[in-house]
Design goal:
The protein has 13 helices and no strands. By secondary structure, the protein is mainly α. The protein is elongated and about 80 Å long. Keywords: Membrane, Transmembrane, Transmembrane helix.
Length: 380
């Protein structure tokens, strides 16, 4: 049986490894000096305190939501790590059973709700299945140890399961403490200390959560118990989009399995507008053809290639996933106060994410800088 010390070291090593991966990804383009500084902070075990210092000192122009978000992430790491270490200390099989059951429950819910396929587009159904399996497990694991609120998005965990996941983490902490007390794994004085620490962490996390909820826009509160799936989101965005370019991005930049139920509506829209698109050649349409993002079966039988009635030449195929990283298609991280759908005539907006139109090279460079800044806010 692994000792408490060995499990603590294992948990700590896993946490440090995940932090290093995120730090490298986040700071890879900020220069070697900044990257080395962030790596050293992680290796000496000061990442949490350093983040807390940044928040307390106001060194970054973070809003209240971002501060509460970061504090919740830190506390979630402590609660999850503490629960797993105690559970494994009581009996290693308990830890293994919980990890399998926890992940199994999540994947089962996704499958039963028809929400298992991940949103990234792949032409092969087999590849989509494998990638979805790996992606779902990865996102679930990251959420377990960070509680990043952006993963409540319907394409990820979903609002209700995100909240349920936090409740499960807290429940497992107290269940593991009860098992440790019954099995006398730790001395009585240590058990009492662990109970106090667990209680303080839980109360603190709950307090920060309600402060966070109180500071975000009221129309986003429902996203924490939303049961919307990725398929439902795709349909909502497609039907509510006010322009062809946005409609196209809602369906042709995601996995085609997500829009099978309303594929007929998409086909009707494509058939009704294809000739006009070929005449006007809008930029978004040219890009979709260039990257082969429009499925062949959805193209009209007689598409023009310079003259009416002549079959269109085979498109130049490129990686569909590569199209996601075209400068015009980049999407920033989801912030609690950002929205997904385009503004309506009265300027109102609705949704969970916001897409940006980039018209010039200067805009593109400015947007890239903004992406790095946003990543710093959410992952520093």
């Amino acid at each position: 049986m692994l000792s408490f010390a060995k499990l603590s070291i294992l948990s700590l090593s896993l946490t440090v490894l995940l932090q290093l991966i995120l730090v490298v990804l986040q700071n890879s383009k900020r220069g070697p000096k900044k990257l080395l500084q962030e790596i050293v902070i992680v290796l000496v075990g000061m990442k949490g305190p350093w983040d807390a210092f940044r928040i307390a000192s106001g060194g970054n122009s973070w809003d209240k939501e971002s501060k509460m978000d970061t504090m919740m992430e830190i506390i979630q790491v402590l609660i999850r790590g503490m629960a797993l270490v105690i559970l494994g200390s009581v009996k290693i099989s308990n830890l293994i059973i919980f990890l399998i059951a926890d992940m199994g429950l999540y994947l089962t819910v996704k499958i039963l709700r028809g929400d298992f396929i991940y949103w990234l587009p792949f032409e092969s159904y087999a590849i989509s299945l494998v990638f979805s399996f790996l992606s779902r497990m990865l996102i679930k694991t990251i959420t377990d140890f960070t509680s990043i609120v952006q993963f409540r998005h319907p394409n990820e965990l979903g609002g209700l399961y995100f909240s349920l996941n936090t409740v499960i983490t807290i429940a497992v902490l107290f269940i593991s403490l009860g098992l440790a007390e019954d099995s006398k794994t730790f001395p009585p004085n240590k058990i009492q200390l662990l109970w106090r620490i667990g209680t303080v962490l839980t109360v603190t996390l709950t307090t920060f959560f309600f402060i966070f909820i109180a500071n975000i826009q009221k129309r986003y509160i429902h996203t924490f118990w939303s049961i919307m799936t990725g398929k439902e989101l795709a349909f909502k965005q497609f039907t509510e989009a006010e322009s062809d370019s946005i409609k196209a991005r809602c369906v042709f930049h995601i996995n085609k399995m997500l829009y099978q139920k309303f594929k007929g509506d998409i086909q009707t829209w494509v058939d009704a507008n294809w000739t006009r698109w070929e005449d006007e050649k809008p930029e978004w349409f040219t890009e979709l053809l260039d990257f082969g993002a429009i499925p062949e079966e959805m193209k009209p039988g007689l598409a023009r290639a310079g003259t009416v009635g002549s079959p269109s030449p085979p498109p130049r195929r490129r990686s569909v996933v590569a199209s996601l990283f075209h400068p015009n298609n980049l999407t920033p991280k989801i912030h609690p106060n950002q929205t997904a759908n385009p503004p309506s005539a009265d300027g109102d907006v609705d949704g969970d994410t916001e897409r940006l139109e980039l018209d010039t090279e200067a805009d593109i460079e400015k947007f890239k800088s903004g992406i790095m800044s946003m990543q710093s806010i959410h992952f520093s």
